[in-house]
Write a structure and sequence with these properties.
The protein is mainly alpha-helical. Strands 1-2 form a two-stranded antiparallel ribbon. Helix 5 packs across helix 8 and helix 10 packs across helix 15. The longest helix is centred in the middle third of the chain and has 13 residues. The structure holds heme C (2 copies). One heme C binds next to helix 14 and helix 15. The site of one heme C has 27 residues, from helix 14 and helix 15.
Length: 369
């Protein structure tokens, strides 16, 4: 198995076609990707720029924080001032790979086409950055730094469509590095944990492929996060979201409907299902699950060992596993071996502070749209 894996790595180095890596089960390398470095650098500035939100207070990096694995370390996310979030912020490391693997974005999988659409959603939706794209475009067009950068990458004037292409170009740079699992450098405990993962634990039934995610949604019976019903600012967001999404009976929901949002089946078969998340970079992204209800990897493994949580629609694959304390610890060691270096250096973080009091371009009054 190890030798096979080293062959995979050698394949990447030699730039062999990715078809060679196709196969089932875990143990696949992440696809390699072509990146336009200049466009990614421009996308990076946009990602860290608070002027992309309606009130100029939130950038993408306010919630997707580099030091927290591009998640935020909170159970439930923040949201636009005056509201608070009702889901856990997912990592953006490797999120770009979802496109080629055919895995949809968001915990409920509500956007499945491309990252440009996810970017638009995050900028314009009232609960995230609450920005009008037309105002954003005018703001960017007055900033001499953007004007210069857009010209340099051959894109002419800043525009909202271009922003939606450039941020995903930056997201391409956020991929795992120096992961013990990928390098074939796992500890003995982690190797034993891998055997549990593939065998007795049954984890690979859903966590498979390069991201350890199969692109399907399941109901695990994760306990509800009661803060959504205790904190008025979170409840506002929860109700508004379910209303916007056309979820029936939204005032009386006491549980996050999850993937039900995609097809609204009248028999409720997708109620409480969430998409299998990646298991890469977990060391950086606690707490876990769509609502941050499990604090540590030890808690997650104990949750599965108990056969998951309670829910009438719980997936029948979840059964008590009867893992010993040692098997559980090894499984945690395996999960940890799927995390690599933090992406917190200048390549991934825009170092300069972006002043909102910039000097507009000299001829701002006469420049044509
Ligand atoms: C106020 C906090 C907040 C801000 C600001 C924010 N996000 Fe998010 N982001 C979230 C949360 C929470 C989710 C998960 C929402 C869900 O699943 O319903 C998310 C999900 C995502 C996803 C999907 C990840 C996946 O693998 O499914 C992407 C991509 C993303 N955000 C990119 C961005 C970009 C780009 C920006 C800036 C334009 C941004 N976000 C701004 C909180 C935020
Ligand atoms: C039936 C499919 C299925 C099986 C089997 C399964 N998982 Fe999961 N896993 C999921 C889904 C779906 C989620 C997300 C649930 C949510 O967000 O509420 C998840 C979430 C997780 C998370 C949290 C990730 C994060 O970033 O929040 C970890 C860690 C995890 N699983 C590990 C395991 C391990 C270890 C096993 C084996 C003991 C396992 N899973 C078995 C489907 C499965």
């Amino acid at each position: 198995m190890r030798t096979l894996f080293l062959l995979f790595v050698a394949g990447i180095v030699a730039g062999m076609p990715s078809l060679l890596f196709a196969g089932s089960g875990a143990g696949q390398a992440l696809p390699t990707m072509k990146i336009n470095a200049k466009k990614a650098a421009l996308g990076k500035r946009l990602f860290f720029d608070e002027r992309l939100s309606g009130d100029g207070a939130l950038s993408c990096a306010s919630c997707h924080i580099p030091e927290k694995g591009f998640a935020d370390g909170k159970s439930l996310s923040d949201a636009y001032p005056g509201t608070k979030g009702f889901r856990n912020t997912p990592t953006l490391i490797n999120t770009v790979h979802k496109q080629s693997l055919g895995i949809p974005w968001f915990h409920d999988g509500r956007i499945g086409t491309n990252l440009n659409d996810v970017t638009r959603d995050q900028i314009t939706e009232t609960i995230w950055m609450n920005m009008d794209m037309r105002i954003m475009q005018e703001r960017l067009k007055q900033d001499p730094v953007y004007r210069k950068m857009f010209k340099e990458v051959g894109m002419g004037e800043p525009s909202n469509g271009k922003v939606r292409k450039l941020i995903p170009e930056y997201l391409k740079t956020l991929t795992s590095r120096n992961v013990p699992y990928d390098l074939g450098k796992m500890s003995a405990a982690a190797e034993k944990g891998e055997a549990v993962f593939m065998g007795k634990g049954g984890c690979v039934q859903c966590h498979e492929g390069p991201l350890f995610a199969d692109g399907q949604a399941y109901n695990l019976g994760v306990p509800e996060n009661k803060d959504i019903f205790r904190e008025p600012l979170r409840h506002i967001t929860f109700v508004a979201f379910n209303m916007f999404m056309g979820n029936e009976n939204f005032m009386n929901l006491r549980r996050d409907p999850g993937a039900h949002v995609i097809n609204h089946y009248s028999d409720g078969r997708d109620m409480g299902k969430f998409f299998t998340p990646t298991l890469r970079e977990l060391k950086q992204t606690a707490p876990y699950m769509h609502n941050g209800m499990l604090a540590t990897l030890k808690d997650v493994v104990a949750f599965y060992n108990n056969g998951g949580g309670k829910d009438p629609n719980k997936d029948t694959r979840l059964k008590p596993l009867g893992l010993s304390a040692l098997e559980q610890a090894n499984l945690v060691a395996f999960l940890e071996s799927l995390s690599g270096d933090p992406l917190t250096g200048p390549e991934h973080v825009y170092g300069e502070s972006i002043s909102q009091k910039y000097y507009p371009i000299p001829n701002w009054l006469t420049v044509k749209n």
